[in-house]
């Protein structure tokens, strides 16, 4: 039997992060030389082992918990030491904290014994400087030899990276068989009831890294929230801590901050992820959006290059220091890779939404040439066959075969499970394109630029083509197909993608109502959130990456779309799913989790390789908060709409510290759903909430025959 090379599992590991540094270890605090455990800096593993022992014995793990936005604390027992009683009298607290350029650990040995305690504490270390893609593939790596010099000091160097460990007061063993497995040793002699603290520090010098950790505090506000449903408060607080740890800047531009995609695989700039996360964070301020927009504008495409996927006006997909190669599956991505079909439209939509939330004109105006370039890409390069729809295909044979947010190779499937053949025309991408055309036109008009009418006409034509080509019959009435394949056949599975169409303007109100009905069927909404594929599609599997699992950000985006378009009951159902999942995951939401029915275990099943924390999963908490408050500002238009999701079902809510323009805003929603807002910048006028009438007919349109 051929042994498979498998991606390491993540779901039981404990992580800390202060981008671009992250660390993953087991629940006892050990970082073992196996799987994906280790300390990572940007896209390299800078420490592959950090195992603590006392008298050559491992501690018995007791518990662990968070310690601020970048730290974790582990408690273990040394029951062979101290008093010979049933109660343990010697414990070791291991406090780990990530820094922008490394990591610190403190070992606090505490005795409550009535006798003195003597022991030897050791930390075994290892370093392989393996690239992140090698770790992800599950392949073997080679430990490097450590060098010693000054007392208590170890160094490793390779590929332009230098790793240093300093351990005050420790003896360093790093010769012979210990050259690749060096050891730090401290003797401990405690009086009765005594304690001591040992420490070691890891620092990384990485001048070739393409990302750095920015200085200073986060670019967003941290609102004070009280809520009848305390899960919302806990989720928001944990998520904001995680987002603080994911802040990054590009080397050479440390003031333009964006959010890294996620730990551990994607701790770098990802166009789609960083844009969505910044968009979700707009209720807390526009500075993060501005930094994200500028970073991606600087790398906007200028030429046609099939090898990288670059095209004039196109927005980057991901940035690495070197080619990203995954052994065994043929994937080879260049350091700056543009293989994304949606990031360009998402860039336009973030610029527009930041403007609505109050991004100053002096920050928007320098980005207008990039806006025009992005719209030109939409009109000239996004539709290579000229049929008026946005499509993608990887022409290299070693790039991403799917280039929407569901980018795994098997993500686009027909109802019978058959894989669709590229070029692929994704449903939600047409929604993003319609929204970008309308939003781009609004910005062009507002800033006196020509061309707005062209993009409004483009949007209208796209809506007509979508209505004609995408709607198909299904078990629950008509539905938008997931995609069109190479032959323009509708890919007729029922998926969460259709939820992204809400609020983009691509659908009329009857069509939005039918989509809302589809999203509330048990086949999609029967888990702890929104399944990516319906259970009665042949491709469904609850632990499929994109064909049956539940993604936190996906559920949050669709929930927000339902709330914004007035489909309250459907939005509340997804909100309850997310909050229940958050409780099960200790409020640190993973990238995705299983799409099993709620009745299976009465808690979500982890997806074993999910990133955690992840930017757009954590930012989904802010999007949920916005939907709960129902705050929808239009600063240039001088209005604010209030349409809260909070109220009788979700409970009352008070939020102090939302940001609209340069003002700190307070929103209160009582248990009846009555909302008030104070602190708005003048002359914004609150509008009466709009409750759309939901049509009773099931068929929004008569689809064209296929």
UniProtKB/TrEMBL annotation:
Residue stretches of biased makeup (Low complexity): 678-706
Domain Putative glycogen debranching enzyme N-terminal: 17-200
GO biological-process terms attached to the record: carbohydrate metabolic process
Top-level taxon: Bacteria
InterPro entries attached to this UniProt entry: 6-hairpin_glycosidase_sf (IPR008928), 6hp_glycosidase-like_sf (IPR012341), GDE_N_bis (IPR032856), MGH1-like_GH (IPR054491)
All copies of domain Mannosylglycerate hydrolase MGH1-like glycoside hydrolase, residue ranges: 337-583
Stretch list, region Disordered: 676-706
Name the UniProt record assigns to this protein: Glycogen debranching enzyme (Alpha-1,6-glucosidase)
